[in-house]
Amino acid sequence: MASINLIEAFQEFKDAENIDRPTMMKVVEDVFKTLLRKKYGSDENFDVIVNAEKGDLEIFRRRMIVEDGEVMDPLAEVEYSEAVKIEPDFEVGEELFQEVDMLDFGRRAILAAKQTLASRISDLKKNVLVKKYGDRMGEIITAEVYQVWKKEVLLLDEENNELILPKSEQIPQDYFKKGEMVRAVVRRVDLKNNSPVIIVSRTAPEFLAKLLEIEVPEIFDGLITIRKIVREPGERAKVAVESFDDRIDPVGACVGMKGSRIHGIVRELKNENIDVINYTTNIQLLIQRSLTPAKISYMNLDTEKKQADVYLKADQVSLAIGRRGVNIKLAQELTEYDIDVFRENEGQEEEYDIDLDEFSDEIEPWIIDELKRVGCDTARSVLDLSASELERRTDLERETIADVRKVLQDEFDRG
């Protein structure tokens, strides 16, 4: 029995688990029917039989047996005298099935067919990958770190598909090691040199939204909706939520008992502070809530210019602005208003200061607590005291105080 071995080509199909069997059979059939058309001018009277398990293929030619000299179409008919040479019992009117010897096509044609088949398989894999991840846009995936480079990290999903986590989509505090599992959200599917490149992200607002959906059943069930998320990855995020059930407190549900629901998300986001606020169409109230943790005394709104002048007590100004201005920046993104902060009862803008808690990623909590114990709760209040005065008033060592002052001063120098 003449056949052509296609084990290597079929192995490609088996590796691409998402390519279903009917698609596989159709592709192989198309490739070899093209070969038949080139040789015989038509493929109408040929059957291509594929055995995917064994990795082989057979082609049979069908022709009707007619009386000698009455052949009108050589592709569809065969003379009786020719048919009985194959099988003596044949009679006129019967159909003759004859296997086509692959060697008749020639080695060059067979090689071309196998190359075409490999190319079609490759295209199918690409299309399957694009569709799979195109449908999963905005979903969280868990993948294994395979390679870490300076500008990106290569991840492998459960089917060994390659995913790219660019540096720009990583949280600044992210540090990856080969073999560890990483969670990210599918951001987009790019085409590079006609090949799909799956881009995933840990900085996108959708990543935080999906983490909340996982941790908060009320969001998953649709009882609470996320109206907007703004983030400064690794530092702070603000999430505006709204409840469709008056009996459910959306903020309380998202945070959980003693922060139980939000803590896991904060750890995943490398200690990113997450402010969950109640969404409202009252813009004045929304601005007030968006400047959390600061408490506002009063404000002047210009709805046409989308401008808000916010007045606060002196000790609240640094909280409203936040470290590197992150808090007020996110509040502006959330409310879509330009917000200017002023000290209450004065027309002058407050001198920029930063709450000590904003430095918790660089200064150990017990040191911050010790500084607060002596009345230093902002960066400037620490810098206003000399190193010797701080050493005298606190239980901190001289080297520790020097390190703290350097961290605080560097922040203002950058600003």
Mean pLDDT: 84
Largest sheet properties:
5 strands, mixed
Number of strands: 16
Domain unit count: 4
* Approximate helicity band: 25-40%
- The count of helical stretches stands at 15
- Rg to the nearest angstrom? 35 Å
Entry keywords:
15 helices; 5-stranded mixed β-barrel; OB fold (Dihydrolipoamide Acetyltransferase, E2P); Transcription termination/antitermination protein NusA; 415 residues; alpha+beta; 5-stranded mixed beta sheet; RNA-binding; GMP Synthetase, Chain A, domain 3; N Utilization Substance Protein A, Chain:P, domain 4
Structure description:
This protein is an alpha+beta fold and 415 residues long. It has four domains: 129 residues, 2-Layer Sandwich (N Utilization Substance Protein A, Chain:P, domain 4); 68 residues, OB fold (Dihydrolipoamide Acetyltransferase, E2P); 73 residues, K homology (KH) domain (GMP Synthetase, Chain A, domain 3, 2-Layer Sandwich); 55 residues. Helix content is 38%, strand content 25%. The chain has 15 helices and 16 strands. Strands 1, 2, 3, 4 and 5 form a five-stranded mixed β-sheet that branches. A five-stranded mixed β-barrel has the order 6-7-8-10-9. Strand 7 and strand 8 form a beta hairpin. Helix 2 packs antiparallel against helix 4. It is elongated and about 115 Å long. The termini are far apart. The mean pLDDT is 84.
